[in-house]
Amino acid sequence: MSKLSAILLTAMMTTSAGWSVAAHAESRGKDSAAPGPENLIESQLKKLDATIPIESITKSPMPGVYKVMLKGGFVLYSSENGQYVIKGDMLEIRGNQLVNLTEAMKSQQNAKLLESLKKEDMVIFSPKGETKGVVYAFTDVDCGYCRKLHREVDRLNELGIELRYLAFPRGGKQSPVHGKMTEAWCSVDRKQALTDLKTGNPIGVEIRGDKAACSSVIDHHHKLGIQMGINGTPAMVLENGQVIPGYRPADDIARIIESQS
To answer: Is 190 a catalytic residue?
Structure first.
């Protein structure tokens, strides 16, 4: 593999090995006499890595530049002939503001992924009164800052924020944390089970669910997080798909949600 390939692919797709290229060629017309820009770009990228996980290739807002969406929320920009590739964010000047188009696009993708989730597959802490905002949190029960965030649950609820936990055992399926979180999701009281684990205690409520089904939910959340570019915990995602990496106090989260509305 060339140095360019290593720069583009190793940095962006360490979690995407084995993904197949999405079948998006049909929409571009397989039988056209001359290859269009999309075909040229795909061909050039596949010279670097035949398994590059392309989801779509479309025109970007910048004339002569195409947007290449990859699995995992990664984005590349390419010239029409695929010879020149840019790894980075595209920014647009709107009046006196600078808008990050790449981040906005990633957020839109994330929001669609969140919509596919079932509420019954999450551990949800809801306000007693009006819900003013929702935060999805990818969590690991042994993560120190995840535990710190959990101590903010009451304050989040006081501020009208609903916290929806998604499982993200950082060590993957074979880690002890995966087993702990599977048991929490199989508990008769998931909220208490998760609280027990996050305070360093064994689960103190009955575990009687289908462990295979609970394990499948943990795996689904973990894969979803990777698809959204999550690589650490806690990682919070707003309903609009904006990712807030790392720990943030409840009041900071409330201010961010308020600014979005």
So the answer is: no
